[in-house]
Specification:
25% of the residues lie in helices and 35% in strands. It has 157 residues and is of the alpha+beta class. It has one domain: Hotdog Thioesterase (Thiol Ester Dehydrase, Chain A, Roll). The chain has a 6-stranded antiparallel β-sheet with strand order 1-2-4-5-6-3.
Length: 157
């Protein structure tokens, strides 16, 4: 799939976001972003500076590792003709994160088509996405729900 006009390569994006201060200083690393911006994989390492009082992952860091990805994947796949914003989020902490934790995001073609259909004729859509944050052994550490606002940009007369 060819990149959309004005977008950067997934490799350049991944390298750049890994130096973004909220990620860099929290121990968050983007491991992969697919060339078509349909998937991403993120890791949060447990370090002395991102532990909470009881020695497990700080909840804010777990949330931060998941924060921008649904919006960015949707934005890249819909293109400049759409307004895309984060609207809401919830997170449930299921078990303590005592080591590296991971999150994967996969945006299907069906989901993109659904969003295009929901936003036809200038309608807005509030779309929910679910993500699990997993320990290396597959244990669920947290479950996140993210709501993304999407609307076609208004055409000027």
């Amino acid at each position: 799939m060819a990149r959309k006009r004005g977008s950067i390569s997934a490799t350049t994006f991944r390298r750049g976001i890994n130096f973004w201060p909220p990620f860099l200083f929290a121990g968050i690393r983007v491991l992969a972003v697919s060339d078509d911006y349909r998937s991403a994989k993120v890791r949060l390492r447990l370090r002395w500076f991102n532990r909470n009082w009881v020695g497990t992952h700080f909840g804010g860091s777990i949330f931060a590792m998941t924060d921008p990805f649904w919006m960015l994947l949707v934005m890249q796949n819909l293109g400049r003709e759409y307004v895309v914003w984060d609207a809401a989020a919830t997170i449930d902490f299921v078990s303590p994160g005592r080591g590296d934790v991971f999150a994967e995001f996969v945006l299907s073609e069906d989901r993109i088509a659904e969003i295009r259909e929901l936003t036809a004729e200038g309608k807005k859509a509030l779309v929910w996405f679910d993500t699990e944050v997993l320990a290396a052994d597959g244990t669920v550490v947290a479950r996140l729900r993210k709501q993304v606002y999407v609307r076609q940009k208004r055409r000027e007369a």
